[in-house]
Amino acid sequence: MEGFFLQAYLYTMAGIFKNLDQSDVRLTPFRAYKRFSGIDAFTTYSAVLDVKAEDLGNNPLVPVSGSDFTTNYKLKNSVWHSIDSQFYRFYYTNAKASFGQLNHTQHPRYLHKDAHVISLPQSNFGEEVERTTLEVSILNYGTLTDDSYGNLVLPSASRYVAGTQGMPIENLIFSLKPTNYTRQFGSVLNDTFEYNYDMYQSTVQLNNVQIGYPLTGYHTVFQLNNSTYDTSSIVITPNGEKLNDLFNFQNKDFAITLAFSTSSNSTASILLEKKANQEIIKIDENGNTYKQAVFRYPYRLTHLSGSNKIQFQKSDGYTTLTVTSSFAYINQAALTLMRSGSTYIIAQASASVLATTTFTDTMQSSEAYCVNACNIFVGSDEYGNSGSVVNIEDVAFYSTAFNPSESLNLAAYHNNPYATFGMVARKQGLAVITYPQYAYDLNTGAKTIGQVEYRGTTTIYENEASCTISPGEFGFSNNPTLHYYNSERNRYELQNFATGSDFRPYVSRVGLYNDSNDLLVIGTLSHPIQPPQNVDTTFIIRYDM
Question: Do 292 and 213 fall into the same domain?
Answer without folding.
Answer: yes
